[in-house]
Amino acid sequence: MTSHEYQTNLRKTAPVVLGPILALTLIGALIHLLSQADALPPQWPMLDMDRTILLHQSWAASQRHNAQILFVGDSSCLMNVDVPQLSAKLAKPSLNLATFSYVDLESHAHLVNRFAQINPGQPDTVVLLIHPQTLRLGEPSTHHNALLRSALGAQPQNSLRNSNIPPTSPEPWIRKADPLGITLVRERLFGRLVPIPLPGQYGRVYGFTHDLWKKLTAQQGSLVDPHTFNPAKTRANTEFRIAPRFQKEAQQFRKICPPNTRIVVGLTPIPASMAQPDNNSVYREMINDLGRWLSTDLLLTELPTSMPDSQFATLTHLNAHGRQVFTTLLAAELKPQSEFSQPRPRNDGK
Known about the structure:
single chain, about 350 residues, alpha/beta, two-stranded parallel ribbon, about 5% strand, globular
C-alpha cells in the first residue's frame, strides 16, 4: 500500500538546487580573487593552542625588546620559568621564546637570531632549558617546524601578509582544491576575528586563543600549566637517553646563534616518584654531552633533577608553586656575574 506519491518537476526543482550552489561558487571565486589581489587580511591562524603559541613566539622574536637574556627550549621551559619574577631577581630583562618538544633546536636558534637582528647588541645570554623526555624523541615534527619558520620568514614587517604558513588542517591538497575558499576564510578572517576556546583545563584558566596570546605577552612568553599531577595515572619510561639527532642539532644551534652570545644549558626536573635510582648521574651525563656539542659557557648543573610530586602539573610541567621554586633556583644559578664575564671560546662541538 502506497501512502504518498511524489512528482518531481525538474524545471521547478533546478533553480532551488542550483541557486545556492551557484551562489556559494561565486562567493568562493570572489574570496579567491580577493586573496590573489592581497585584499584579505594577512594570515593570522590562531586556530588552536599550538598555533597560537608558535605564532606568538615568532612575533615576539620580531619585536623591539630590552631583553638581555633569552630562554628557549621545549614546553617545560615555556611552563616552568616565571620570567617576570626571574627578571626581577636578576635585575636583568628577560624574554621566553620557548615552544614545544617537537620543535627542533635549529628552529629555536632561528628565534634567537631573529631577535638579535631586530635588537642589535642583544641578547648577551641564551638559556636553553629542555626536559629529558624531549631528548629521547627520534624525530621532530616537520609540520610544526615548517609553521614556525614560515611565520618567522613572514615577520620582518611584523606582518603575515603574503606568507605561506602551512595549515593545521585541512591537508594541503584539500587546501588547493578548496573552491569555496573555506580555508582562506578560516585562516584570514575567522582565526583573526573569532576567539576559539582552548581545550580542557587550559580553556577554564586561559579562556580563548586571543586570551592566551595576551597572557603570553603579559608574562614575557611564559605560561602556567593548570593541571594536577597524578602519579597513579601517569605511565612513563624515565630511563633517559639522548637521541642521535641532537648532536647535529646542538652544533647547528651554536652556529646559528649570534657569535658573541653566551650559551647556557640546563635540564628541567621530573617528579620524585618517577625518578630512577641513577637519575642524578644520567642527568649529569646528558647535560655534559649537550654542553660539549653546544660549546656552552655555563652548565646549570645545580638545578634539581627531580622535585616533589606536589609541585608538578604533569610529568614534564611544574605547577604554579613548583614554578616559583624552580625559578628561584634558576635565578640563583644565573646570578653570579663572574659566570657571565666573558663568553668561552667556541670549539667545533665534537
